[in-house]
Amino acid sequence: MGGEAGPNAMREEIERIADTTPDSLLADLERTFGGEAPAAWRKVVDHPAAFLISYSGLVRAVWDAVAPVWHRAKPLLEREIERVGTASVTGTMGALLAGLSPRTAFVDGHLRLPDHTPLAHGVAVRKLTLMPLVSGTRACVLRLGDDGHAYIGYPVTGLAPLLGGGEDRAEGSADALALTLGELRAVILRKGNQSVSMGKLADLLHCTAGTVTYHCRQLEQAGLLYRERQGREVRVLRTLRGDALVDALS
Predict the structure, then answer these.
(1) What pLDDT digit, counting tens, does each position of 43-85 carry?
(2) Helix or strand or coil: residue 130?
(3) Which of 129, 157, 225, 232 is packed most tightly, with the most Cβ within 10 A?
(4) Closest by alpha carbon to 148, among 124, 131, 129, 121?
(5) Which CA distances in Å does 198 have to 94, 101, 170, 224?
(6) What is the model's pTM?
């Protein structure tokens, strides 16, 4: 998990931007682009002072709007640290990665990223840092360094009610299994203590057969349950690993 940036750090960063001189900005652009700035940056190169005034004002306005939500999201961020830690020690990171962001997917042991992700060719991922974001529910920030250190920023779990102006429900008692896997997958795994059909699960969860199939497939790939066909039905049952996880988090 990435380090926590407090409100003081944000204010200091805003002041640093406001204090940046046009010459410093142009020097940074020179180092970044090697002499010829892309077309999108030409107006900045031509009018650096105006850009700095506009940009620092924009950042300040955005922080003023985001800060109240950021403060209220602190319990969610703390809970996310616990969720990732639990998934790590219980061997269920696959299930967690599968629900990381609407813009990513975890399939057959591989994390699939958006097509526009800037990846360095020939660099193997050696370290992964997960960074929960207090941002939009579809937020997704990705970077892979030359040293093989990958960073993935994703929307912190439970953020939607805060962004919608609802009350923060992070303080209440939490279901550890649901926090780790998500509510639907937690119910599926609990129901899987005995062989149950996919149709029955769809009825219990009030969702489509396709939704149940998707979540069961993710749990199966994480080694937490298995599916088998019996006649015209597909039934699921927890594995020993799934049993151990439910016992550990119940």
Answers:
(1) 999 999 999 999 999 998 988 888 888 888 888 888 888 888 8
(2) strand
(3) 225
(4) 124
(5) 22, 25, 31, 16
(6) 0.57
